[in-house]
Amino acid sequence: MTLFIQRILEKIGHLLESGPLLARAKPLFDAIDSFLLSRETVTPAAPHIRDAMELKRFMILVVAAAMPLALFSIYQYGWRAVAIILVSYLCGVGAEAVFVVARREEFTEGAFVSCMLYPLTLPPTIPLWMAGLGIIVGIVFGKEVFGGTGKNIFNPALVGRVFIAVAFPVEMTTRWLMPASGGLGRFTAYTSDTVTGATPLIVYKGTRAVTPVADLFFGNIPGSLGEGCKILILAAGLFLILTRIVNWRLPVSMLGAVWVASYFGSALWPERIAPPMFQLLSGGLLFGAVFMVTDPVTCPVTRPGKYIYGVLCGLLTVLIRNFSGYVEGVMFAILFMNIFAPLIDETVFLLTFREKRASQ
């Protein structure tokens, strides 16, 4: 079967090379070829060492880790969650395909990850056209304007999410659904017409009432599609760490900074800063710590830089949540720190080499 598919793809590849107009579609064909079959390219000279963890498998494992969250969002909010994810893929992958064809570059799997993570940060009531607009903005202005995958300084999924939050604040902050619980949930429904008032962070912002930990942990609270069951998020994080997709220093340092800052902050300013357990389990903090702050393209590459980056993301999250007009600070904090990731690495390199030269 594999040999048959390979022969078909080879014939299509030769056909696309027959004319300049058809050649523009070659990058899209190469992407399909790479997705279906393993690459046969090797290094020009020996030794031809091949690592099993190529870009395709790297991206597929991230999507696989997020799939249980997507399934749980269907259970909680109905099949409209699938519609939001499909619109994200159609618009996001389509936007990237336009740039790939125009530049005649290789189509990478980065868009598939962004188009999975982005909808999981959205409310289940978000209009479909709005979800599509957000991912297009994220792909174009968060990645393609910088040259494509691997050259972007911002996380595309976060750019799209923040754009929607700023451009359409009513849809992103006031229209939430109470999730289903028990039985088949909403697996048998498209959506629910029951609109609840607010998320735990919004409730705390207005009344200082803290939602019970059990409800936060098991997702019995309204929120974005992917922030429901914290067990699934933690399991996804453990899976990504064990497969070495994620460097554990980033989520641990971010969550640790949130814990420390909220522990001492709630003791000193209890009327402004929420307690640590509520901070950790509410909103998109765990989701952001597992899937967003660990983006290998936009985070520092040095070991000390990862600690610094994670700590600053955590501290900014606490500050934005408790001292600004926004109830959620995770996405803003990570996107803001994307700007400083290269500077953090450069500072670490300069200090490291200075210490080595001084010792010599």
Polypeptide structure, described:
With 360 residues, the chain is mainly alpha-helical. The chain has 2 domains: 9-37 and 56-197, no CATH class; 227-352, no CATH class. It has 18 helices and 2 strands. The protein has helices at residues 2-16, 20-23, 26-36, 55-77, 80-103, 110-117, 128-142, 156-167, 169-173, 200-207, 213-218, 230-242, 249-268, 276-281, 285-292, 303-323, 330-338, 341-359, and strands at residues 176-177, 195-196. Strands 1-2 form a two-stranded antiparallel ribbon. Helix 4 (55-77) packs antiparallel against helix 12 (230-242), helix 12 (230-242) runs parallel beside helix 15 and helix 16 (303-323) packs across helix 18.
Fold blueprint:
Elements: H1 2-16, H2 20-23, H3 26-36, H4 55-77, H5 80-103, H6 110-117, H7 128-142, H8 156-167, H9 169-173, E1 176-177, E2 195-196, H10 200-207, H11 213-218, H12 230-242, H13 249-268, H14 276-281, H15 285-292, H16 303-323, H17 330-338, H18 341-359
Antiparallel strand pairs: 1-2
Short description:
By secondary structure, the protein is mainly alpha-helical. Helix content is 63%, strand content 1%.
- Number of structurally distinct domains: 2
Low-confidence stretches: 45-50
Q: What is the typical, i.e. mean, pLDDT?
A: 84
Can you count the beta strands? Answer: 2
The Cα radius of gyration reads 22 Å
| Class based on secondary structure composition and strand pairing | mainly alpha
Characteristic terms for this protein:
360 residues; mainly alpha; 18 helices; two-stranded antiparallel ribbon
